TrEMBL record:
Residue intervals of the ABC transporter domain: 2-234
Organism domain of life: Bacteria
Keywords per UniProt: ATP-binding, Nucleotide-binding, Transport
PANTHER family: ALIPHATIC SULFONATES IMPORT ATP-BINDING PROTEIN SSUB (PTHR42788:SF13), TAURINE IMPORT ATP-BINDING PROTEIN-RELATED (PTHR42788)
Protein name per its UniProtKB record: ABC transporter ATP-binding protein
Signal peptide as annotated in the record: none
Entries under InterPro entries matching the protein: AAA+_ATPase, ABC_transporter-like_ATP-bd, ABC_transporter-like_CS, ABC_transporter_ATP-bind, P-loop_NTPase
Amino acid sequence: MITIRGVSKSFTGRDGTTVEALRDVGLEVAENEFVTVLGPSGCGKTTLLKSVAGLVPWDDGEILVDGAPVRGPGPERSVVFQNFALLPWATVLDNVAFGLRMRGVDRAEREERSRALIATVGLAGFEAKLPGELSGGMQQRVGLARALAVRPRVLLMDEPFGAVDEQTRRLLQEELLALWEEHRLTVVFITHSMEEAVLLGDRVVLMSARPGRVAEIVPVDLPRPRSHDVGGVGRSGAYAEITAYLWDRLRAMHAEHRPASPAAGTEVSA
Ligand SMILES: Nc1ncnc2c1ncn2[C@@H]1O[C@H](COP(=O)(O)OP(=O)(O)OP(=O)(O)O)[C@@H](O)[C@H]1O
């Protein structure tokens, strides 16, 4: 379980101006829950996720994972980034095994675990390839296998499918849901896509921009397993309704932040 209480964070830019990235953000994510986070660009989604990951310090408030305060990265939390963040000189196998190696797992076990996960994400036969020899979708499969290799309880995903094509994205979404069911993980998943937020999430956390706050939490009461197939949730009226509701809310947020005139223009876009 993740508890975020009263978290605030400001950045001071090189020109001395301050951006309030997060203000008094509170959120509870239950064990095995899949929460998606949606909001306008620059509303602090990545800052929030990196804070939970222990990768950036915040100014006020507290973040607990299973009751323990987050003070840095930890073995129970894995992060998947949009740009894959793979080691370009290391093979697929070595990339997936990297975290296990860091944790001192012996070679035979890390190879066995990594090969099994590589097969699970559909990349059997690609173990000896370098990331540069793979498509974007394949690279993100490696990113996912690498994150799961250390058997985390919490998976933190920062727009992981944002850089892949729509067809691959749909396949990856369904694969992620299957992995989530199998591994019983708690997932926090950032996205810009309303459709993705609804297809994946138990709840959608809507954030508003400047300062970044939790504007609303929208429950997604749709049956699982979910898919894009005929008869699947992705084609249902209820899915379309929640997606439309999220768009209405986001559109209103965008309208609020539109610069009124050039004279008023202190707008800083992220
Ligand atoms: N290292 C940094 N230094 C200065 N300002 C930063 C830094 N990181 C983030 N910010 C600012 O904090 C705000 C929130 O950024 P963040 O990346 O968390 O937003 P986001 O919602 O993830 O954006 P996007 O949806 O575009 O990825 C933005 O205004 C951004 O410019």
